[in-house]
Design a protein that fits this description.
Helix content: 25-40%
Strand content: 25-35%
Order of helices and strands: EHHEEEHEHEE
Distance between the termini: 27 Å
Structural class: alpha+beta
Low-confidence stretches: none
Mean pLDDT: 96
Number of helices: 4
Oligomer: single chain
Radius of gyration: 14 Å
Largest sheet: 7 strands, mixed
Number of strands: 7
């Protein structure tokens, strides 16, 4: 069973996990197209971060950034390699969407990569009802980025 908890990003395990996430983004995207937040970015007051655990093992994470009082952004979705395909990301995303509803958001959006490495992520977001859209917030059109949104 996955336990999802608020995380202050102070633990060495989660710091290393975010480091792996950023390294993976660098392997699959050119530098100008990497929009993943580092630990300091995830600690900003407009971002809430959760980690996912199974029996004391870190298996995933996700964050929700407030763009305004009615619009949130999914950030830092990641599942540990050994746990991919087991439903961890579905549970984390469901948790983020529940929090968005609780906050009164009317829309949740996200940016992910357009490359093949990001196809599983896009499929997950599509399965939750996210649809493709143009850039939002401070993003600009980028052939390496895909933008998705969901009214809630």
């Amino acid at each position: 069973m996955v336990t999802i908890q608020l995380d202050d990003l102070s633990g060495s395990e989660i710091i290393a996990f975010i480091g792996e996430h950023l390294s993976n983004m660098a392997e699959n995207s050119p530098p100008e197209s990497i929009h993943a937040l580092n630990v300091d970015g995830l600690k900003r007051p407009d971002v809430t971060f959760w980690s996912a655990w199974i029996n004391g093992e870190l298996v995933g994470c996700g964050a929700l950034k407030e763009l305004d009082g009615e619009h949130g952004e999914v950030k830092s979705m990641r599942t540990a390699l050994a746990h991919r395909g087991k439903g961890v990301a579905k549970q984390v995303l469901a948790h983020l969407l529940e929090e968005a509803v609780r906050r009164g958001y009317r829309r949740v959006s996200l940016e992910t990569g357009s490359m093949e490495a990001f196809a599983p992520a896009r499929k997950l977001y599509e399965s939750f009802g996210f649809t493709y859209c143009g850039p939002f917030g401070d993003y600009i059109e980028d052939p390496n980025s895909v933008f998705m949104t969901k009214a809630i």
